[in-house]
Amino acid sequence: MVSLLRGSVFPSRYAKPFRGNVFAVNPNHSKIMGLKCFPSVLGIANEIDLAVIAVPASLVPKVLRECGEKKIPAAVIVSAGFAEVGERQLQEEVKGIALQYGISVLGPNTVGLIVPGVFNASFALSVPKPGNVAFISQSGALADSVIDWALEELFPFRAIVGLGNKVLLDESHFINHFADDPGTKVIALYLEGVTDGRRFLDALSHASRKGKAVLVLKGGSGKKGAKAVATHTASLAGNEAVFAGALKQGGAIRVFSLEELFDTAKALSMLPKLGKNSIAIITNGGGAGVLCADACEKLGVNVVELKPSTIAKLEPFMGKAWSRGNPVDLVGDALPEKYAKALEVLLSQEHIGGAIVIQTLQTMTKPLEDARIVINAAKKSKKPIACVFMGGVYTRESIRLLHENGIPNYNDPVKAAGALAALAKYCKTKL
Amino acid sequence: MVSLLRGSVFPSRYAKPFRGNVFAVNPNHSKIMGLKCFPSVLGIANEIDLAVIAVPASLVPKVLRECGEKKIPAAVIVSAGFAEVGERQLQEEVKGIALQYGISVLGPNTVGLIVPGVFNASFALSVPKPGNVAFISQSGALADSVIDWALEELFPFRAIVGLGNKVLLDESHFINHFADDPGTKVIALYLEGVTDGRRFLDALSHASRKGKAVLVLKGGSGKKGAKAVATHTASLAGNEAVFAGALKQGGAIRVFSLEELFDTAKALSMLPKLGKNSIAIITNGGGAGVLCADACEKLGVNVVELKPSTIAKLEPFMGKAWSRGNPVDLVGDALPEKYAKALEVLLSQEHIGGAIVIQTLQTMTKPLEDARIVINAAKKSKKPIACVFMGGVYTRESIRLLHENGIPNYNDPVKAAGALAALAKYCKTKL
N or C: less crowded end of chain B, CB within 10 Å? Predict the structure, then answer.
């Protein structure tokens, strides 16, 4: 997966060569990156599916018109220098050409579009691994930073879309697109303003009907932020109450930080349905279990009372010091087998809908084995399991293993509670 | 820095050999870890400052009595099997012996005590680097996980204390101790219950008078959590409203997750005073600036209006597209020099009390150079600077550099806003 725009073959761990033809167009060069250069798209004999335009803003109308004459159906205009710096007339001209020739234009002023494992029409620094979360961002810089973070966390994406100035394609088009895309489970958005409130609400409702989770982080919810939005993407941040109402009506989930956006996306993209709002907290650290239970209660996630019959099933192998209640405290010396047996009993109970597995790091703790236990339990059960493998250096590999196997991990018990609260909301499980 | 309790010489990046004498005591061995073994402390000729007791619970009274006869002033009782499993009588016996001989006892059922760079009387997995944050935890497992996380984040500690069952030494003793310790700036606590409300309040007030920041994460604030507290450390979680009132009266800052505890500790331990509640947000990504401004407004941190004279000073080198407002958007192609000049101008303005520097990761971004710019600016100014270097793989080294130089970094603009809000609260800057 190579980004032509970066001027060099960029290595990516999740790279796979683009199988289609790529043509370079530049009147001043005969070759770019080993590709023969055409002076104009009009000189290319083959049919073209997508044009990526990265010329100075003033040349964009000419180039886009040539794309129209060549009957290219779609274009990503990376070039900046339009409405975001006050050049509204130039942007209107671009819009006119796009409409005249029926070109689906993304941008201008966009970081571009990545579909990991398929193609990379962006100047982002790297490419994440393929997954089922589509991230649509009105800020290219955020998208770029998120990709780098995703590589470290092994967070997978269906697509990354920089909306840019939204001359034609906007959030609603992409929400509708990913709602209909079988490869997408979660649609995560960073928005500063909405092009058309009615279409946005329709798109949200469409996605909701299609069973997709839509998460929205809105920039400009305060006065200072709204003012900054105007200079950033020349958007109107709009009325906060109206926006909040629209999200609610459209069945979308509102979040308030990037971290919350992806913590929630991780849960909703990876976890199966939460059938019952009644979870078990399994921990080898009492304090971590307490903090998790506090957060669950605050967020409406039910840390269910264990039935006497369940306690009786656990008793034989839990040792003297266990809590005999939920949170299920396995106590600090818990070996992987204890986690395994506790998970097996608890997930098989009809009155328990899911689990949070906490692993604090103690002398006897075996992070990699514990991770394998959880992965195994998740394979056998249809109930959601979120993990909190705490620590840093010693737990890094076990967290990678969990994520590679589709188990979301959080570094704080409070966040796992938040993830299950969001899952309950998405599954319409009564909170 | 070796933990005798782990049975082996444990390597640590922040290890430094303990300079005092260490004596091993065990009637069944002649040597432990190369040390000559004494059958009892009574057989040691030298004076002893501290006994670390890790024998089965039933033997603790005998061993502690011998320590008393040997006139050892302090003991860490690592052994478990006391009140936390219902053995209250045994615990009372230990307390009686401690009082009778005047031994300052930490524990029983504690992970122990670490003073990084000085000594390690714990069975924690590793040792963080030395710093000015004292972490006092009623959960050993949390302390252990936090240490591992700290190693990854390079977070430094003055001390890590596991309170255990608090037979004698409790949170109030340690708050008072670290309040008087010139090497401590922040006292961070995880508590499940308080031994004596009056003494706790007095200790908080003492720390406040001494200018120390006290941060408190309380387990058992909800019903389920409070119930779990009873089985975890046999504490009474107490009345939530009374506890909240005591913290307020004592000038402590309440937090609600481990992450918030250390995000806040990072700011308060590293940053200079915030004199004026009026900050500048400097960013190369508009969206990140918007999210930060939104969070600041929500938390009462003033994103100050720039004076026309300040804008005029910035104008010459900021290029065409900059925001001409606060957040100060340097635009995506910002090179390190632009960060340097903007920081220099903004920090020199009388109406600006501090800064949040955001770096999104774009094609032109130079994370390491940007980090050096911030470090340099912080050295020249007395105003606090918090950073948000976003990303993962490509920013890891720059974040290490920031932390090594005492600049707190956060992975999300919203968290930096939270950090400055806490700093304002601590500095009693009007919010």
Answer: C
The shortest CB-CB distance from B232 to any of A84, A256, A329 is to: A329
Domain with CATH 3.40.50.261 in chain A: 113-270, 279-426
Say whether domain A113-270 belongs to CATH 3.40.50.970.
Answer: no
Q: Tell me which chain B residue has its CA closest to the CA of residue A395.
A: B148
Q: Which helix (H) or strand (E) holds B311?
A: helix B308-314
Task: Flag whether residue B361 sits within 8 Å of chain A, measured between CB atoms.
Answer: yes
- Tell whether A220 is within 8 A of chain B (Cβ): yes
SS3 B32: strand
- The ipTM of this complex is 0.92
CA distance to partner chain A, nearest, from residue B208 (Å): 26
Average pLDDT of chain B, as a whole number: 91
Q: Given B287, B293, B298, which is nearest A190 (Cβ)?
A: B287
Q: Which fold has domain A4-106?
A: Rossmann fold (3.40.50)
Q: Which residues contact A259 (CB under 8 A, 6 or more apart)?
A: B411, B412, B414, B415
Ranges of CATH 3.40.50.720 domains, chain B:
4-106
Q: Give the pLDDT of residue A242.
A: 87
H-helix or E-strand spanning residue A213: strand A213-218
| B340-363 mean pLDDT | 96
Element housing B89 (H / E): helix B88-101
User: CA-to-CA distance for B352 and B258, rounded, in angstroms?
Assistant: 31
User: Which one is the CATH code of B116-270: 3.40.50.261, 3.60.21.10, 1.20.120.1730, 3.30.230.70?
Assistant: 3.40.50.261
Residues of A in contact with B287 (CB under 8 A): 137-139, 141-142, 190, 192, 219, 232
Span A345-373, pLDDT tens digits: 999 999 999 999 999 998 889 999 999 99
**Can you tell me the distance from the alpha carbon of B264 to that of B254, in angstroms, rounded to the nearest whole number?**
10
- The mean pLDDT of chain A is 91
Residue B142 near chain A (CB below 8 Å): yes
Tokens of residue B287, six digits: 């969206």
CA B350 to chain centroid, in Å, comes to: 32
- Tally of CB atoms within 10 A around A29: 12
CA B369 from chain centre, in angstroms, equals 28
Chain B interface disruption, residue of A6, A149, A224, A263, most B CBs within 10 A: A224
Report the topology of domain A279-426: Rossmann fold (3.40.50)
Query: What is the chain B residue with the closest CA to A329?
Result: B232
B376: buried, middle or exposed (CB in 10 Å: 19+, 13-18, 0-12)?
A: middle
Point out the residue among B232, B290, B395 whose CB comes nearest to the CB of A232. B290
* DSSP codes, A333-388: T--HHHHHHHHHHHHH-TT--EEEEEE---TT--HHHHHHHHHHHHHH-SS-EEEE
Q: Where in chain B is the domain with CATH 3.40.50.261?
A: 116-270, 279-426
- CB-closest option in B217, B224, B259 to A296: B224
Whether A43 contacts chain B with CB within 8 A: no
DSSP B224: H
pLDDT digits (tens, 9 = 90+) for B83-129: 888 899 999 999 999 999 999 999 999 999 999 988 888 888 788 89
Instruction: Closest CB to B332: pick one of A141, A221, A288.
Output: A141
Given a contact cutoff of 8 angstroms between Cβ atoms, the answer to whether A410 and A358 are in contact is no
A138: contact with B, CB 8 A cutoff: yes
